[in-house]
Amino acid sequence: MNNRDTNFDQSPSRFKGKIITDEMAGKITRVEELAYILKISDVMSSSLKTLSPDHSMQDVLVTMRENRISGVPIVDNDSHALLGMVSTEDLIKCLANQDIDANLTKYMSTKLVTVNSFDYLTEALKLFARTGLGRLPVLDENGALAGILTKGDVTYGLLRALEHDYIEEEVRRYRASHLFEDIESDRSSLILRYTIEHYDFTHGGSASSKIKRALLRLGANAQLARRVGIGIYEAEMNLIIHTTHGGTIHVEIEPHQISVYAWDEGPGIEDVNLAMKAGYSTATEEIRELGFGAGMGLPNIARCADEMDLQSELGKGTHLTMKFFLKGEDVVGEGYTGKGKKETENDA
Amino acid sequence: MNIKNLIKFIDGDLLTKSADLTREIKGGCGADLMSDVLASIQPNAVLLTGLCNPQVVRTAQMSDVAAIIFVRGKKPPQETIDLANEEGIPLITSPFGMFELSGRLYLAGLPSLEQPISE
To answer: Which residues form the DRTGG domain (chain B) (predicted)?
Structure first.
């Protein structure tokens, strides 16, 4: 909602004339969010050229020319309170009157729209949009001048914050993908456990979703993450649909293999061979309406996994094991061994 | 074809926000059986479906679907939309039926990304 207020069309000179691409537009939600996180004090310019009321309009002209600025805040010498601003427009009026030696108080604007340094950026964005002003003086808690905020400061501050986000995510990814490198043991593995409730369709798939994300974080390529994700999703749905009390999913991640165990305590499968047959299903009409129960789950798992084992005893429960073997470039948690290639695959 | 163009092309309404609409679509797949989708779909497809529950989004996420189109003007419940927003998967509703949509998209040059399911 606030993106309209940010008014990118009137953005500062460094972006002037450039079309906002879809890619930038895609960032708008994060920008909106940042406008509520960043304080005005985080982005304003605080090194200021100011003048006190005892100066002349000639001094204003010199200050503007030397610093290439279009407005000078006038502050009280002692209290640093903001008394007014002299803008280029005020200077032009003065020049038209041939009155350059006049005291600046004669021409300065005193009706000022200001913002507080401790307010969120969104307040400033609203003011920019409502007033059409290009710069806002910023006051601190005591009403003294703390800085100036231009639209350029806003854009620059937001871009800096976005860049920071990006670097943080990169660092997080890097750390996770080198997880196993820094820990020494004869055999290290990372174990993820998830409890799956019977008939919990609302959360159905959330475990597989988390596992897929974890694998991508650990540096797995998109294809491997997809294969493991689909296999586990089918297993997860089986626990939701076919068990009496739900079950557990246990994923063991090692640099060279991923083992998935799905356990439940019943009711167990009567004929495992029949259950493995594509198209065979015991699912109810209700389940079918949800888009499942087509008898494709177990065959699907078999297709995704490199190795699959299904043990079941009627009345006792079912143990499903899936193994995924990682070839050279698939390796997870040991850094980007196949460097450039892997990163592009992740992006794909 | 990217998602933005796709929406225009099928008179669609975008139901989600915060999705990357410049993502390129490589082809399509039409199914109401999620297991069929999981078994047969290739990455970066647009999924045409009449099924509206949240499992559609989960399925799409697992199989790297680029966008989901609900056919015959169907509108999914809020929980489906919420999940799609969370996962960044665009949801689109189109007034056309599954048959007509498939035909239109195929003629527009989108290939089928459904693999045959062999045993």
So the answer is: 5-105
